[in-house]
Amino acid sequence: MTDVIGAAAAADFGAFPPHERARALVAVADALDAAADELIPVAQAETGLAEGRLRGELKRTTVQLRLFASVAAAGEFLDVRIDDADPDFVLGPRPDLRRYRVPLGPVLNFAASNFPFAFSVLGGDTASALAAGCPVVVKAHPGHPKLSDRTAEIARAAIASTGLPADALTVIHGQEEGVAALRDPRITAAAFTGSVAGGRALARIAAEREHPIPFYGELGSINPVVVTPAALAERADQIAAGFATSVTSSAGQLCTKPGLLFVPTAEPASAHAAGSSVGAGGFAGLAAGAFEAAGPHRLLHPGIAEGYARRRDEVLGTSGVTVVVAGEVADLDASPTLVETDLATLIEHRDTLLDEAFGPLSVVVRYEPGEALAAELAGLVEGSLAAGVHTGEGEDSPWLRDLVALLSDRSGRLLFNGWPTGVAVTPAQQHGGPWPATTNPTTTSVGTAAIDRFLRPVTYQDCPPELLPEPLRDDNPWGVPQHRSRAGESAHWGEI
Fold first, then answer.
1. CB proximity list for 405: less than 8 A, separation 6 or greater
2. Within 13 Å and on the Cβ side, how many CA atoms surround 235?
């Protein structure tokens, strides 16, 4: 294997002005859009995902590249801070201090299987690292190797067309190669999307290196959603349909799929008056038809099929669990499974019911209206990428506020009257959460804040002007935002 890490390190991508890196990202986005008719069939053949889903994902990928191009061009991410020398500083003379953020260096990105475009070779981890000025080595996922190589070829040519080094993006294959790259001293950070077991193992390697590096892992997530009695009374049919769509889309192979849905046990007295169609079969009965109608869908690869089948058997074999829609797994094809239980059973069998089922399966959990649900969930629910609450119109109560506070403590994104699948690519997005959703709850892998993972701050003190980096110079040749603290200001701090 050629020394791709050495090539990436030699690319010195961070030495180029941010607006030039931005042009390269736009060129990559344009090239991917132009190659859609070539890439989509390759992705279909390797993943089994539908053409419409893949075209939407490719568009998401190119939009994300353009978003980070805008972030790079604006230069705000450099967070330039300049403190003018101040002989009258309130704590004694202050030197000239100039701080900004620099790229860490070569980043290793472990691509995911379930998003062959958006979380793969040119997904958010790659886009944000390149925008930061870091060369990227992608460890391709074995579920779509041909697509990975062709995507990289197109991107490298596009980068080179702008005059920047193509080796800013390279691809490697194989588990051993990925581990070796993670141990390579030239790699300065790593990003990963995958299983808890895989993420733990890689995080340990990153931490045990002679010089440990940051490891940003996105791991397991059950994404709990709670339906209040008022919401069930108002729109049970609508909630059931949305739930089924969220669980069965892409065969449930989405990291934000709702794995647990909490619904009240008793139908509210006002339900019939409000037009709800909750009947003797309860909420799970409402959702059953939509689950059954979804039909079989190919899973991404044998490893996922085996893991899902094993997890499904564990859930179906748990005492106190009622099968609403059995579904099945045949080779790589899986049809949706829906089960129902109560809160007491979930508590009793938490060891088997609370793990993520990566596939088209979800658990409806009945709770008693009025009980302290937040207190019960506090001892059950671990960190998730997302959590949700379906509320009635204008609903507010101490019970609901306690629930909202608990779910916001356990998730990176809390949504109301919607479903966690569907992660908008936009500046305010947060795609991360407490363990085991991620290895680092302070960061995100989607949204413009994702760039923060691949930067570190450095301050220049009393540096001669001719030796200052461009962003810190008074003439500001890169034209980036500079936040300046002028002499004399300290005397007025605290004057509010």
1. 374
2. 13
Write out pLDDT tens, residues 321-365: 999 999 999 999 999 999 999 999 999 999 999 999 999 999 999
Count Cα atoms within 13 angstroms, Cβ side, for 90. 8
Asked if residue 421 is part of any domain, the answer here is no
In a domain, 304, yes or no: yes
Block residue for tokens 């994404």: 223
How much is the pTM?
A: 0.93
How many angstroms from the chain centroid is the CA of residue 19? 26
pLDDT band at 42 (very low <50, low <70, confident <90, very high): very high
The active-site residue out of 57, 218, 234, 267 is 218
Same domain flag for 146 and 253: no
| DSSP H helices in 12-117 | 18-34, 36-47, 51-74
pLDDT at position 51? 96
Q: Which domain holds residue 137?
A: 4-219+441-455
16 with 154, same domain: the answer is yes
- Select which of 46, 134, 255, 340 is catalytic: 255
Are 227 and 239 in contact, with CB atoms under 8 Å apart?
A: yes
In a domain, 470, yes or no: no
What is the pLDDT at residue 270?
Answer: 42
Is 255 designated active site?
yes
242 shares a domain with 196: no
Q: How crowded is the C-beta side of 371, counted as CA atoms within 13 Å?
A: 16
